[in-house]
């Protein structure tokens, strides 16, 4: 069967979904394997996943534009993995993948009660039922010599953002040993200016936080992979809670179409090209009118603006890791919870990951680049957690923007690339970089970048279940023949859905009630499970996953999902960390 080029996501359950216990219990030779857990393949743009296994992949290598760090292959150091071009992308009709790759630990920052007060009622105090770990951090080495910076993992954006020593305004959070800032004044061997540090950017997030600065390039080291000349956003102004979360910036692993840096660079390049053309036309007109040659002034004008057009598009980190021979396979796998097996007793191994595995502890979770972790996927037949047990789902393609936003480079934000896009049932009219022939193709204009076929790690949500009772979700774009679209979002500490769907769920729970717009409470002793299916088996969430805070002097507790209004971005459901902690997700980029 021929597989058309597209992105895939898969989910592999690490536990029987009806049981939420013994997550950290080690398995040994005498332990009977658990029943085959449910697996679900997801079709979506950049997303997030966790404890159950989720996977997204492309059937064939491609240069899909995902925001990531750029690397100059000629200057790479350390162990160099096989190029995606050298390995089969598809075996039969499923993406190829093996145990191995670059294993990176995740750090879970605990924030008791964080994010709860904004949803509380005026006359009640919320009591967290457990520590809320809503920030997952990846230690990333940047610079030469390298310094390690804790970066918040985000699957719904694609840029690398790093706070700098220039962030000194009253709105900037303070730096400390736990959230160090990049020292712009200090000489860095790997530092490269972009357009004389004059290319400015800014971005905003749904929670009202903002960040801005200029664009630079640096050496980025991820395990044994070194990416030189990687583009990143130097933050010199922000109200992000960096010090509270003990982070230095953000690591985006989304698709290139989301890249603020990419849009800004292309827009500036287009403006410079237009200016050069205008200057040349003016000089030629003057020369014709005076009957003299003005080639000297024309040449000077073009040279003066050449520095603005030298750099147009710079690939994101994920894009660079995929385009150049850094990874065995164009995938990354994510767990937001410790493995079932105690790492100290794990016997699974691979040559590709032996050295890195010995140095990292997945006690909070794991990010594996180029393969899947031996701590979460094994080679034992019948375990229900082998590579062959993974189910794959197509990533949901998104259509072209309905309108064109001619904003200036300084005002380009993430929403410019996403706000007016809608899911699409076909990608025939979109710009594609999801096949081998386009592996080295990069966008040359903002229009080309905005017309990329993939936008988010999102998939089609087939069904929801409440204690086994199936609820078919409504789609915001049912009139277009599209199903309900769910975004996997590791940067969101919750679950959110359309008002109609959320109301239907809580209407089936005894004594549940809406306490404020979109926020529901249920009796704290509720025992019901909530399941999500993407065409495969259900991923079941236990009450401890979706009931998250008690109301003081009450027997009621706050619960997910919350209802959210349609924003026109094509996303119906947002599945954050409460969902992702229950899955091990694999995202295939090409």
TrEMBL record:
GO terms for biological process: proteolysis. Residues 136-590 form the Peptidase A1 domain. InterPro entries: Aspartic_peptidase_A1, Pepsin-like_dom, PEPTIDASE_A1, Peptidase_aspartic_dom_sf. Residues 67-81 have a biased composition (Basic residues). CDD domains: pepsin_like (cd05471). One of its GO terms (molecular function) is aspartic-type endopeptidase activity. Residues 58-81, 342-363, 403-445 are annotated as: Disordered. Residues 344-358, 407-428 have a biased composition (Low complexity). Keywords: Signal. Residues 1-20 form the signal peptide. Coiled coil: none annotated. Belongs to the peptidase A1 family. This is Peptidase A1 domain-containing protein. It comes from Cryptococcus amylolentus CBS 6039.
């Amino acid at each position: 069967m021929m597989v058309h080029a597209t992105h895939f996501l898969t989910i592999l359950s690490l536990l029987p979904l009806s049981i939420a216990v013994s997550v950290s219990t080690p398995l040994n030779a005498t332990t009977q394997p658990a029943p085959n857990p449910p697996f679900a393949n997801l079709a979506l743009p950049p997303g997030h996943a966790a404890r159950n296994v989720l996977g997204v992949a492309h059937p064939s290598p491609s240069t899909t534009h995902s925001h990531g760090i750029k690397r100059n292959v000629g200057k790479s150091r350390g162990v160099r993995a096989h190029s995606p071009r050298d390995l089969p992308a598809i075996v039969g009709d499923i993406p190829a993948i093996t145990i191995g790759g670059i294993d990176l630990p995740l750090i879970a920052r605990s924030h008791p009660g964080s994010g709860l007060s904004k949803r509380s009622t005026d006359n009640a105090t919320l009591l967290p039922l457990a520590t809320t770990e809503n920030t997952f951090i990846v230690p990333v080495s940047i610079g030469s010599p390298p310094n390690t910076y804790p970066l918040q993992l985000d699957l719904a954006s694609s840029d690398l953002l790093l706070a700098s020593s220039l962030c000194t305004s009253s709105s900037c959070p303070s730096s400390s040993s736990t959230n160090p800032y990049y020292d712009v004044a200090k000489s860095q061997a790997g530092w490269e200016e972009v357009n004389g540090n004059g290319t400015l950017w800014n971005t905003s997030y749904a929670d009202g936080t903002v960040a801005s600065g200029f664009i630079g390039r640096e050496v980025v080291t991820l395990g044994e992979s070194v990416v030189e000349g990687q583009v990143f956003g130097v933050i010199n102004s922000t109200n992000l809670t960096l010090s509270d979360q003990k982070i230095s910036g953000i690591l985006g692993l989304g698709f290139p179409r989301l890249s603020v840096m990419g849009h800004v660079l292309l827009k500036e390049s287009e403006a410079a090209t237009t200016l050069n053309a205008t200057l040349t036309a003016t000089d030629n007109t003057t020369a014709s009118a005076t009957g003299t040659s003005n080639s000297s002034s024309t040449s000077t004008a073009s040279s003066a603006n050449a520095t603005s057009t030298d750099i147009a598009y710079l690939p994101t980190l994920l894009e660079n890791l995929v385009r150049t021979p850094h990874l065995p396979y164009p995938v990354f796998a994510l767990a937001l919870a410790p493995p079932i097996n105690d790492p100290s007793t794990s016997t699974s191994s691979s040559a590709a990951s032996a050295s890195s595995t010995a140095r990292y502890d997945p006690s909070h979770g794991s990010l594996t680049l180029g393969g899947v972790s031996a701590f979460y996927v094994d080679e034992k037949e019948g375990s229900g957690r082998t590579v062959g047990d993974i189910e794959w789902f197509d990533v949901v393609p998104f259509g072209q923007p309905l309108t064109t936003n001619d904003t200036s480079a300084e005002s380009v934000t993430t929403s410019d690339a996403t706000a007016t896009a809608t899911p699409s049932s076909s990608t025939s009219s979109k710009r594609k970089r999801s096949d081998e022939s386009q592996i080295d193709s990069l966008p040359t204009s903002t229009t080309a970048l905005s017309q990329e076929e993939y936008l988010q790690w999102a998939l089609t949500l087939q069904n929801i279940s409440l204690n086994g009772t199936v609820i078919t979700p409504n789609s915001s774009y049912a009139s277009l023949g599209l199903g309900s679209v769910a975004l996997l979002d590791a940067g969101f500490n919750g679950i959110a859905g359309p008002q109609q769907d959320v109301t239907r769920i809580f209407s089936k729970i005894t004594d549940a009630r809406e306490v404020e717009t979109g926020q529901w409470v249920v009796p704290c002793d509720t025992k019901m499970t909530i399941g999500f299916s993407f065409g495969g088996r259900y991923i079941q969430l236990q009450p401890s996953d979706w009931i998250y805070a008690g109301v003081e002097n009450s027997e009621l507790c706050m619960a997910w999902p919350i209802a959210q209004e349609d924003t026109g971005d094509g996303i119906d459901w947002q599945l954050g960390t409460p969902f992702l902690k229950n899955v091990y997700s694999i995202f295939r980029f090409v």
